[in-house]
Design goal:
Strand content: 15-25%
Largest sheet: 8 strands, parallel, barrel
CATH architecture: Alpha-Beta Barrel
Order of helices and strands: EEEHEHEHEHEHEHHEHHEHH
Oligomer: single chain
Shape: globular
Radius of gyration: 19 Å
Length: about 325
């Protein structure tokens, strides 16, 4: 496993981290989830990314991960870097969502209970909710560190203006933002354009999620929509309307470059994210150990020629591909 320095901190993270957004809720086989976590750890992935609402049902990914830790990795806690977040819908009522102090503090307490942990290595504000003052949310994160419930704090999906304000508040309190988490892929470069440089200039590490555009940057949809695919199900994150002719054609052209690199399209898409040296780590998801191992093979070829990067830029330059 390769590691990168996380911003201006003393933390190093693996360039590939395991996300528990999908495939770790109560709808997934627990033995498969266990195998995924243990294989990831054995292969050098020590960073695991959670959120309070991951499931389904919400909270179940944290509960299941906590059980895996207790049964298999309890003696390895100090070798692990575990993250969780709060801000999206979690429980009924007006206090079960958003980025208020009440929600942030209560969510962290609940997440610690579900996982069985004494602290999180990093706890994020999962989203800027447009209503709560950034000052209130950041003070809640600062207090979590002071209370020993988190070692570091992070922000996720913050717009540029609020992103900079968050950094300023945290820096003044001597609790700098360790990680800034954004969705990024060849089909979704908005954060790369709008947020990465702000994070870099403020000494925050950058970690990316959805690098495969929910499966569009794989060969899964080259010949239609498979019955067992995410797009064929009830996912709100990838719908049949997202499977456009333009995206499929672009994916096929990108796949030709990947084949010349002796990589799958998915592996090249991960390598493209990591080709930006501002990026600390990329969060991968997997539904099987086979898929996890295939993603890890990305590390065999992270370098791009200028010609390859130019060809990729040409293929993905049309905004009609973005979502």
């Amino acid at each position: 496993m390769q590691f990168r320095q996380c911003g201006h901190s003393g933390i190093k993270l693996p360039v590939l981290s395991l996300g528990l957004w999908h495939n770790f809720g109560d709808n997934a086989p627990f033995d498969v989830a266990t195998d995924l976590v243990l294989t990831a750890f054995d292969k050098g992935i020590c960073h695991f990314d959670l959120a309070n609402n991951y499931g389904p049902p919400p909270g179940s990914a944290e509960t299941n991960f906590g059980k895996i830790l207790r049964e298999n990795l309890s003696s390895h806690r100090d070798e692990l870097f575990i993250a969780s977040k709060a801000g999206h819908d979690m429980w009924p009522g007006v206090y079960g969502t958003g980025s208020s102090r009440k929600n942030i503090i209560a969510s962290c307490d609940q997440s610690l209970k579900r996982t069985g942990l004494e602290y999180f290595d990093v706890f994020y504000s999962h989203v800027y909710d447009k209503f709560t003052p950034v000052e209130e949310t950041m003070q809640a994160l600062i207090d979590l560190v002071h209370q020993g419930k988190a070692l570091y704090v992070g922000i996720s999906k913050y717009p540029p203006e609020q992103q900079q304000l968050a950094y300023d508040i945290l820096k003044e309190a001597h609790v700098p933002c360790l990680l800034s988490q954004y969705r990024c892929s060849m089909f979704d470069p908005k954060a790369k354009i709008n947020n990465f440089q702000i994070a870099s200039e403020n000494g925050s590490g950058i970690i990316c999620f959805s690098p495969l555009a929910q499966g569009l940057l794989t060969d899964k949809y080259f010949n239609g929509i498979p019955e067992n695919s995410r797009a064929a199900g009830s996912s709100v994150f990838l719908q049949t309307s997202h499977i456009t002719p333009e995206r499929i054609e672009a994916s096929k052209q990108l796949n030709e470059i990947a084949q010349q690199r002796n990589q799958s399209l998915a592996q090249m898409a991960l390598a493209w994210i990591l080709s930006d040296d501002r990026v600390t780590s990329c969060i991968i998801g997997a539904s099987s150990v086979k898929q996890l191992n295939a993603n890890l093979e990305t590390l065999n070829n992270l370098d791009f020629s200028d010609e390859e990067l130019s060809d990729i830029k040409r293929i993905i330059s049309d905004p009609i591909l973005y979502f």
